[in-house]
Design brief:
23% strand
């Protein structure tokens, strides 16, 4: 009690404008009711700094942006696997609405920096290969496949892109808190529905006898248990508990998200460790979200020159929505 009273008169540490903006952003993502918690900003601040340190370290480990041009495509095996031809870079990246809008908003910028997110997986197939002067068609080959491309938010410099990446990592952590809270809210709805059902069944079994029937006793016990569970759920959804849930996720940032860079030798056809003479060693930086099952995404930073862009299309189609 005395510690609580003392906290009323203790000066709260001042937060910078950047800290306040970051806290408000992740609170909006996790659950707005967190703002009703006592001193939510000062409680979140130290854990936010901890998570930011890890997020900045992860973003800084990503390889430098790859310039998208014909010369780089001829030399870089990663670009050759992402885009079958140099013109394909313009078809895929140059038509991105987000990049087109960014260049329109920055008319003096000659280069935009953006992260490309993709799925990387390996597939074993049987192909043709030469062994001891003989052609064999039943040789197992491991093929590297990159698919499901998505472009992130552009930035005006590599440093700004790294900072933007760190912010997206924090947003991902806040989304984990959002998912945990949503799970509790869904459980609350199921309990409320079951409680209504139990009370309805009890009313339908009402009789003139003074002694409850076994069916009535069963429903009364069910109502009691459901009420107890619902009270526990309400405790988990009060603002202070929601704030603690977000704190838990922020504190566990190193365990939730990690960056793993793996290296492999790949030829122009995407075959790993083939007998081809044009094998090239490439780095595959993957951001891994620890869930069941884990979510792994390949992150490639790119430098996009303005001449690569197509003119914005005036034809209006259905809006696209990316679901994570």
């Amino acid at each position: 009690m005395w510690s609580t009273i003392r906290s009323w008169f203790t000066a709260k540490p001042k937060l910078t404008a950047e800290d306040e903006a970051s806290i408000e952003r992740i609170v909006d993502i996790a659950h707005p009711h967190i703002r009703l918690a006592r001193n939510y900003a000062t409680r979140l601040a130290p854990y936010l700094h901890w998570a930011q340190t890890h997020a900045n370290a992860l973003a800084a480990q990503l390889p430098a942006p790859i310039a998208l041009n014909h010369e780089t495509w001829r030399q870089d095996r990663t670009l050759q696997l992402l885009f079958a031809t140099p013109d394909r870079m313009r078809d895929v990246v140059g038509r991105d609405p987000g990049l087109q809008a960014w260049f329109a908003a920055w008319p003096l910028a000659d280069m935009a920096y953006v992260g490309l997110i993709a799925d990387a997986h390996e597939k074993v197939r049987y192909g043709m290969s030469e062994h001891a002067g003989q052609i064999r068609q039943d040789v197992p080959q491991t093929l590297l496949i990159l698919s499901n491309y998505q472009l992130g938010q552009p930035a005006q410099s590599p440093d700004a892109l790294v900072q933007l990446g760190a912010e997206r990592i924090l947003d991902t952590i806040a989304i984990q808190a959002q998912l945990a809270i949503a799970s509790v809210e869904n459980k609350k709805k199921l309990l409320e529905s079951s409680l209504v059902n139990a009370r309805t069944m009890l009313r339908m079994q009402n009789s003139s006898s003074m002694t409850p029937s076994p069916e009535q006793i069963e429903q009364q016990t069910r109502i009691k248990n459901l009420t107890t569970e619902l009270q526990d759920i309400h405790q988990q959804l009060n603002p202070d508990a929601l704030c603690e849930q977000l704190i838990t996720e922020l504190a566990a940032t190193p365990d939730i998200l990690r960056l793993e860079v793996r290296y492999c030798n790949v030829d122009r056809m995407g075959i790993i460790d083939s007998d081809s003479s044009d094998n090239q060693r490439i780095a595959l930086p993957e951001l891994i979200l620890q869930r069941e099952p884990p979510i792994e995404k390949l992150i490639i930073l790119m430098a996009v020159p303005r001449p690569l862009m197509h003119a914005p299309s005036e034809k209006r189609g259905f809006p696209e929505q990316v679901i994570f």
